[in-house]
Amino acid sequence: MKVRAFNIKFEISYTLICIFAICIILNQFKNFLFCILAVIIHESGHIALMCFFNSKPQKIKIKPFEIIISDDKRHLRTTKENVFIIFFGPFANFICVILFYLLYLLCNTYFLNFALINLFVGVFNSLPVISLDGGQLLYIFLCRYISGNMAHKIVNIISFMFIFPLSALGFILLFNSAYNFSLLAVSLYLMLSLVLKKDSF
Q1: 163 near 191, Cβ under 8 Å?
Q2: What tens digit of pLDDT does each residue of 140-180 get?
């Protein structure tokens, strides 16, 4: 499904719409909505900084496990600007963790759930894994001291080191919860991205 808003083309995966429908049927709409909102907050952090540096994205693809922001001006910006843009995604989530935790102390548990989901999204995206913000920041840092090709190989190795434990944790969560397969699905997606060299350096 394709829509246009604020002069930006949005492409929404039909798979995501199907997952949305399944969550409603399984009475998981609230958790799904919280996750989507946390991801939107995360990506809004990136987009806000891109606009601040006059690099407004032209196209955004929304998929079940990722949001792809077209960034044609990345190589025209300074390294410091790129670092700020990448960092501001998790930072937006961490700000929301503090905000919604304070609201939880004043109000009710719904805010606590949303704070925890933002914490998970922020920490997860900070992992040094290829295609995540942490992996991007690690790559930029390594490129200051070694070649881009060598930095890429090192990030690949570190990504494997983090994805395998995540996958194992995903299996444990699957069998010790009400068949919560979300972490396992994301881990397998990251593994597939790594094997297929689907990165955005």
Answers
A1: yes
A2: 999 888 888 898 889 888 888 888 877 777 777 666 666 56
What does 121-166 look like in DSSP terms, one character per residue?
Answer: HHHHHTSS-TTSHHHHHHHHHHHTTS-HHHHHHHHHHHHHHHHHHH
Residue 191, class by beta-carbon neighbours within 10 Å (0-12 exposed, 13-18 middle, 19+ buried)?
middle
Q: What is the pLDDT of residue 93?
A: 95
Burial class (CB in 10 A: 0-12, 13-18, 19+), 201: middle
d(CA 184, CA 24): 21
* β-strand pairing of 8-12 with 59-62: parallel
Phi, psi of 60, rounded to the nearest 5 degrees = -130, 120
CA distance 23 to 34: 12
Given the structure tokens 């032209």, which residue do they identify? 58
Q: List helix spans (H) across 53-78.
A: none
Are 65 and 186 in contact, with CB atoms under 8 Å apart? yes
pLDDT, one tens digit per residue, over 29-39 is 676 778 888 88
The DSSP 8-state label assigned to residue 76 in this structure reads G
Angle of helix 79-106 relative to helix 29-52, nearest 10 degrees?
140
User: 102 vs 35, 133, 156, CA distance in Å?
Assistant: 19, 26, 38
